[in-house]
Amino acid sequence: MRPKELKLWTTGVAHLLDLPAGHARLSGLSHWLRQICPVDHFVLFVYEGNHRPLALFDTFSADKRAIYVDDYQCGPYLLDPFYLACTRGQAPGLWRLRQFAPDHFYLGEYFLTYYQQTGLAEEVAFFVDLGGGAMAVLSLMRSSASCAFSRDEMQLVECAQAVVEQVINEAWRLRQAQEPRPVQDLDFKIREAFDQFGAHILTGREQEIVQLLLRGHSSASVAEQLNISPGTVKIHRKNIYAKLGIGSQSELLGLFIRELTEDQLPAHSLKLQA
Question: Where is the HTH luxR-type domain (predicted)?
């Protein structure tokens, strides 16, 4: 970074920290980060225990928010590699989505049927530990019209970690003080729908395989995860599809989404059933 750019960036930090904590400072943070490199969209989710993801901030238009936030909160987040990384206690820092994605994530039906609707080419995110079992994930998204984040850009963006952590922690404390999360925000029902998907007809092993397939694992990856042979996985898949009356992995995801739709998804989410 040249001296002129460094001066502009540090001046931006001073202006940013002068803004009121909360939404105004989060908005300022997004503008400040764009001084480092182009970003098409930002979204900040907090993952906390058995609560469904809380969107603290985003830069989406209303139509895009319906997909990125509203639909996502109603169930597809259970298949999101960033969410799953949080459940495994991922260390704070800047991470690429593909660092956590299963081997067939970008070929899997979650990506093709849901994620691809967003038009994203790449997503990187700051993971910020909020304490008390809560983790904030600030996603920096680029559309398919933009190129991937370069190594140099990642290194520069990573330098912002301390500022990002301060702004997000302040926003989280303010949110907790002003608007405590309601009990009805707990998502046991959605988690149960995922954990029990197919329980009425599938064996325990078949349910394990279904959950991995939904999250984008190939047959080979499923075999590795469960320590069984790929041939055994293929037999299980054939039996699963026969029991559920479907013929492909896309139909498997559609069936899962439809089960969530019955009680969870808003009307505009019916497009996910295709």
Answer: 195-260
**How far is 72 from 248, CA to CA, in rounded Å?**
23
Residue finishing a domain among 184, 206, 241: 184
pLDDT (tens digit per residue) in 158-195: 999 999 999 999 999 999 998 887 766 666 677 777 88
Q: What is the CATH number of the domain that holds 239?
A: 1.10.10.10
Which three-class secondary structure state does DSSP give residue 46?
Answer: strand
Under a CB-based contact definition with an 8 Å cutoff, are residues 134 and 49 in contact? Answer: yes
Is residue 10 a part of any domain in this protein? Answer: no
Q: How many Cα atoms sit within 13 Å of 172 on the Cβ side?
A: 22
CA distances from 172 to 182, 184, 236, 238 (A): 15, 19, 44, 46
Residue written as token pair 């002068």: 18
Q: Which domain holds residue 217?
A: 188-273
> Model pTM?
0.78
